């Protein structure tokens, strides 16, 4: 059992009386939650409302983290944390996040976000999902994705061209770069000389 010195006890109590939460005291004094709460119970009444606020704060941080990690359907977050949808919206709003309302397109939108984070360009996404590029930007913005305003198409297209030059087949390349076979065919037609085109038919 950990034994606190009189000086530590005094400092912990003083900090607690100034409004520090148990979690903050744990970080300040490098003791476990049990050690600190057990001591405080011997000298004062632990403020339950302050503990409730602390628990809510931790829960809201977890909600925001899950949302940013791709757990983007609000109703699922509410179910996971056993709270109402309104609580989830409030937690996200505190961090300046405006979630998309639940609808039938959510699964498709999540796929778009995942593909973008895996390296597909705006133009590749627009082609793959049959959306205008401005719609892709809108979806990514709504999901609070940091958009790189650079031309990622160039790197990806160059890699596809290199694979075609090496004799790769259209279907294999399409799977490797997560684009349609037609997209690979378009790149081949646009960038490869006639002699190389014939080898990849």
Model description:
- The N and C termini lie far apart (75 Å).
- This protein has 201 residues and is an all-alpha fold.
- α8 crosses α9 (133-142), α10 (153-165) packs across α12 (181-191) and α11 crosses α12 (181-191).
- It has helices at residues 6-17, 22-29, 33-43, 48-68, 74-81, 85-94, 106-117, 122-129, 133-142, 153-165, 170-177, 181-191, 194-199.
- The protein folds into 4 domains: 6-46; 51-94; 106-142; 153-199, Arc Repressor Mutant, subunit A (Orthogonal Bundle), CATH 1.10.10.
Query: Major sheet: size, sense and barrel closure?
Result: none
Please report the distance between the alpha carbons of the first and last residues: 75 Å
Helix content: 55-70%
The CATH topology of the largest domain: Arc Repressor Mutant, subunit A
Average residue-wise pLDDT: 76
Q: pLDDT below 50 for ≥5 consecutive residues: which ranges?
A: none
Structural class: mainly alpha
Count of DSSP H/I helices? 13
Shape: elongated
Identify the CATH architecture of the largest domain. Answer: Orthogonal Bundle
**What's the helix-strand series?**
HHHHHHHHHHHHH
CATH secondary-structure class of the largest domain: Mainly Alpha
Give me the count of strands: 0
Number of domains: 4
Strand content: under 5%
- Radius of gyration, in Å, reads 27 Å
């Amino acid at each position: 059992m950990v034994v606190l010195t009189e000086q530590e006890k005094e400092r912990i109590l003083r900090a607690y009386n100034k409004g520090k939460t148990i979690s903050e005291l744990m970080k300040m004094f490098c003791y476990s939650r049990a050690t600190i709460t057990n001591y405080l119970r011997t000298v004062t009444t632990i403020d339950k409302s302050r503990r409730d606020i602390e628990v809510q704060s931790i829960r809201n941080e977890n909600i925001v983290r899950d949302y940013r990690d791709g757990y983007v359907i609000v109703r699922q977050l509410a179910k996971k944390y056993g709270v109402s949808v309104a609580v989830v919206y409030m937690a996200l709003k505190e961090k300046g996040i405006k979630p998309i309302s639940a609808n039938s397109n959510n699964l498709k939108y999540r796929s778009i976000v995942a593909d973008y984070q895996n390296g597909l360009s705006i133009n590749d996404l627009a082609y793959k999902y049959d959306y205008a590029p401005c719609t892709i930007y809108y979806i990514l913005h709504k999901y609070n994705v940091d958009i790189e305003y650079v031309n990622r198409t160039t790197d990806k297209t160059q890699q596809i061209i290199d694979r075609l030059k090496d004799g790769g087949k259209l279907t294999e390349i399409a799977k490797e770069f997560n684009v349609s076979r037609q997209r690979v065919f378009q790149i081949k037609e646009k960038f490869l000389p006639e002699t190389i085109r014939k080898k990849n038919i």
